[in-house]
Amino acid sequence: MSSPTPHLTRDRTEQYLLGALPPEAEAELEAHTLTCEPCARLLQEEALLEEQLYEVAAATPRDAVVVRPARWHRPAAVAAALVAVAASVFLMLRPGGETASTPVTPVEAPVVAARDVEDAPRDIVVACPDLGTQEHCLKSASARGLLVYHPGGQGEVPRYDASSGLTQVALSSRPAAL
Amino acid sequence: MTTLQSRQDIDSAVRPAAPDEESLSRRALTGERAAWDALIARHQRRVVVSLLAKGLRVDRAQELAQETWARLIQQQQRGLLPELRLPALALAQAAFLASDDARRTRRESVDGTVEELPERHQPVDPAQSAEKRLLSEEQLTRARDALEQVSPGARNVFLLACDGQGLPHAEVASRVGLSVQRVRQILCEVRKKLRTALEEENHV
To answer: InterPro entries from the entry (chain A) (predicted)?
Structure first.
């Protein structure tokens, strides 16, 4: 009898590292690695991979997270997309628009869409990609004086009104990009 | 109307239950024990895993993780912590303790005595260990390519869970609107893809 407890499998080790195992199973796995050298090594390998994944995530540019039809800092690059161009050009011409020249890309770059393209565009609606990145998106958008469309629903919208002066009624139409 | 009502109810019920990292850190810096406990619960696993990755046995890793938090709390009480950036600070402290540990065992094996190392009171610089890289540039590129192949939703889950802030899976789940089980399932899938990508590189 080499050991009374079962050896580690890769799946089980992953579950352990994710914290998905019940406490007893966790304790059993831990106890096993103390007496079983190969399993201890497997656990180390998996833990190392976990650390590497954190590094991968840290090195991944957040721009890759969302689809982004427009780049607000480089309007020339998006000449193909009509809506995007309208939005970007407006951004550049905006009075007091120091925003257009800022080289900083928002980390979670939101989707930009112009409302009422056929009229003179009065406001650019920024749709935050999702709830997870919404906070940052909100900040960078309001720093640019843009209006934010909230994907979670209308209930949250009044929070953003202060930066735009638009009423909730004006927001009830969905931006074209969505 | 009723659905809206119930959603608001849920929202107001859920929000105060999960204080965000920032307010927890602020409270911990004032020495509030409950805030420390919450932060420890949130980041403990990450610290232990980082120690396991260094080749420590599970029991020793857990001891050092405990020691890590003890040191951080001590530093806070002495007013040596100007800010609390977790988990980076805890990981750096743990890495320091681990290398300290290794040095001590080496010395012990040489002359048979355990020498007490001078206690370090300065907080460790988290930037230092952040500089240290586990992966080569090529491996990173390969992993990034693999990540491109993953569906945007799954990628988002992965980036949320692993963005270095130590967001609990439950919180990731509520942010993306999935169950915790599904989030973990996604993480496992992404992990498998990235493992292949990283190992491929080792082969070549």
So the answer is: Anti_sigma_zinc_sf (IPR041916), Znf_put (IPR027383)
The shortest CB-CB distance from A57 to any of B50, B55, B158 is to B158
What are the extents of the domains in chain A? 10-60, 64-171
Residues of A whose CB is below 8 A from B191? 14, 49-50, 53
Return the residue matching tokens 């796995």: A29
Contact B135 A52 (CB under 8 A): yes
Closest CA to A115 of A50, A36, A170: A170
Residue B201 CA, chain-centre distance (Å), reads: 26
What are the pLDDT digits (tens) for A98-146?
A: 444 444 444 544 444 444 334 334 445 556 666 667 677 777 766 665 6
* Model ipTM over 0.95: no
Q: Which of A55, A60, A64 sits opposite B134 (nearest CB)?
A: A55
| Domain B133-204 top-level CATH class | mainly alpha
| Spatial distance between the Cα atoms of B162 and A169, rounded to a whole number of angstroms | 39
Residue with tokens 């999702």: A130
> How far, in Å, CA of A35 to CA of A12, rounded?
17
- Enumerate the CATH 1.10.1740 domain ranges in chain B, comma separated: 19-128
Distance between CA atoms of A63 and A66, rounded to whole angstroms? 6
Chain-chain contact of B194 with A53 (C-beta, under 8 angstroms)? yes
Beta bridge pairs of residue A147: A125
Identify the CATH number of the domain defined by range B19-128: 1.10.1740
**pTM of the shown model:** 0.61
Nearest-neighbour CA in chain B from A2: distance (Å): 19
